[in-house]
């Protein structure tokens, strides 16, 4: 928690914030071992970042004097990430990684090799997803939550949504064995598609290439989804 | 487990391997749902990679007919990674990530902000470390275990080992606020130093820069160690 992310509810008035949820209060007490008078980095959900001073901290509440919140959050990555739905534990970690790295548009996609049971996981509830996104923001000192959409069918995604997404973005399909090595340091708006463990099936690859995506690879090593996504984002942007 | 990594003990003779440890046998049965006759990727620890056929699989043993094991494992990264010892759970995941990415030299370093208790963790036993490295190799279809050394003192590391390590390598110190953005696609032998959560302290940064390291950063976002290490390796190589 490198930033205390304030929701509008936490802000009492321009100069005072009260944090009352047990997770953050406990973190301030037990991990930060914060003390009255400490200066800390604060941010407003969807807004600016700045400093504040801890006025009080007890078991139920932390109060902050807000100094300024006028810095912009760090820039977003120019990417819409389309990720085959990972298994629940990996989803949780991947949501935190990609949020910390600056992804702001994320689509979780069903593909042939995604186990159908993953779509029933409690990790997909809006509250759980938001909790992981928030951890990613707090880590990276960001304030802007990513938009997460669920695409429960591959074919409807490709037919109804992909053309529009690709109209304004370069489409990159990350898949082992594709002809081009992942490009470095591109700055253009990008749609990045990453398959599940086991990969996209051949028919899916063909459909995505036919829709206008370029196939890219990360070399001969097969990486876990969470490692591959971080490596792709770090190399591309 | 994208590769069945055979130890010399597993190899009965040139054409027959027996895998008897419960972890791999269970994985073959329950995750791969392997069947007699399946062709699978095999590799010999420290050696070549090839194909084999599953001859039998029961609760205690899998037997493989070895076809060929004459392919080279994927190339290593030209990096010696020096990582401030992470907390035990993050260490476990980071060992897997960096092994999968192709790191072959790893030093775990004590720094001021590493909690001393981490050095007592059972995760640091040679058997535990090897288990995580093996998972990384199996993931990435590699056969060559990384060398892991423990450097329990910062000053002895800097005074006694760093000069020699830097004699043949470009030293890069990854630390927030350093002047140069992390370079992309370098091919030269590199020593990459990554600090703990909370970072190196200023005195440590000064010592590492004075020893000849260049300070690099990954931008304004503060990343978890495991995310930062993957991002650095993917961008550098």
TrEMBL record, chains A, B:
GO terms, biological process: rRNA base methylation
Main location per the UniProt record: cytoplasm
Protein keywords: Cytoplasm, Methyltransferase, rRNA processing, S-adenosyl-L-methionine, Transferase
Reaction equations catalysed: uridine(1498) in 16S rRNA + S-adenosyl-L-methionine = N(3)-methyluridine(1498) in 16S rRNA + S-adenosyl-L-homocysteine + H(+)
Keyword S-adenosyl-L-methionine applies: yes
Family annotation (Pfam families): Methyltrans_RNA (PF04452)
Domain Ribosomal RNA small subunit methyltransferase E methyltransferase positions: 76-236
Protein localization: Cytoplasm
Enzyme Commission number(s) of this protein: 2.1.1.193
Coiled-coil boundaries: none
Gene3D superfamilies registered for this protein in UniProt: 3.40.1280.10
Entries under InterPro entries matching the protein: Alpha/beta_knot_MTases, RsmE, RsmE_MTase_dom, tRNA_m1G_MTases_N
Any GO MF annotation of the entry: rRNA (uridine-N3-)-methyltransferase activity
Protein function: Specifically methylates the N3 position of the uracil ring of uridine 1498 (m3U1498) in 16S rRNA. Acts on the fully assembled 30S ribosomal subunit.
Family according to the record: Belongs to the RNA methyltransferase RsmE family.
Entry protein name: Ribosomal RNA small subunit methyltransferase E
């Amino acid at each position: 928690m490198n930033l205390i992310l304030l929701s509008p509810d936490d802000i009492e008035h321009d100069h005072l914030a009260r944090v009352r949820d047990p997770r953050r209060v406990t973190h301030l007490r037990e991990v930060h071992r914060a003390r009255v008078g400490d200066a800390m980095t604060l941010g407003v959900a969807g807004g600016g970042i700045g400093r504040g001073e801890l006025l009080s901290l007890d078991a139920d509440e932390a109060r902050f004097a807000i100094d300024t919140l006028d810095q912009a959050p760090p820039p977003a990555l120019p990417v819409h990430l389309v990720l085959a739905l990972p298994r629940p534990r990996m989803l949780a970690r991947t949501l935190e990684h990609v949020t910390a790295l600056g992804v702001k548009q994320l689509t979780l996609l069903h593909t042939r090799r995604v186990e159908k049971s993953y779509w029933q996981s409690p990790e997909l509830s809006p509250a759980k997803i938001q909790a992981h996104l928030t951890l990613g923001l707090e880590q990276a000192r960001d304030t802007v939550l990513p938009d997460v959409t669920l695409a429960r069918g591959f074919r409807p995604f490709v037919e109804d949504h992909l053309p529009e997404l690709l109209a304004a973005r370069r489409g990159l399909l990350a898949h082992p064995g594709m002809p081009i090595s992942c490009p470095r340091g591109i700055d253009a708006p990008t749609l990045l598609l990453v398959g599940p463990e086991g990969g996209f099936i051949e028919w899916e690859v063909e459909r995505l290439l036919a829709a206008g995506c370029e196939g890219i690879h990360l070399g001969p090593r097969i990486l876990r989804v969470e490692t591959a996504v971080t490596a792709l984002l770090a190399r591309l942007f």
